[in-house]
Amino acid sequence: MPNSAPATPAPSDSAILDVLVTEEPRTRHLTRNLRERCVMARVQRAGQHFYRCFALARYSTWEAAEAAARLWLRPVLAKLTALHPREGLLTTRNRSGVTGVFFRPGYRTLRSGRFVTYPAYVARWPGARGGLKWMFTTSGGEEGAFLRACIARELRCADRLRVEWAVRTLSPERRDALLASRRPLTERFLLNAPLDALASA
User: Fold this and answer.
1) SS3 letters for 2-44?
2) Which site in 8, 60, 135, 145 is 20 to 30 Å from 33, CA atoms measured?
């Protein structure tokens, strides 16, 4: 059941104008409800939903309603982030089993019409644009790619040589512990393509 978010003062007209002037990009927390003629501001944290509506009857235009919604979102997101920090949180969409490490099947259709896959694990952390990808075919298979992505995420390091060295010097116990945290890939992303033939496509 959605909840009204932590109490925040209604945004003033001058504050709304400031947001309109800065032309802030849209956020995923805002939705234009054409039927109800309002902007919905919604946030979800720790299984709880918070929302508020900003009607065109009050703000006249979609842009003004969205500006008011952004002003309402700022303190709400700040408070919820402090209560439920997302850093280090393993999401339900994560298929690797390690925070900041994600599986990518790498589907691709060649000009010939042939369908191939280039599976990889990607390490991401704040400030790493696009993350660091480790493909199965060039990292010693699924286990090698997973280990390299885990170490890159742990070190927050985009230097591949440094990550390679760190992986090669892992103790057997540490290596086994990392591999034990890996979730099995239930999706049959490889279809009929053998792993050792993917790179030659």
Assistant:
1) CEECCCCCCCCHHHHHHHHHHCCCCCCCEEEECCCCEEEEEEE
2) 8
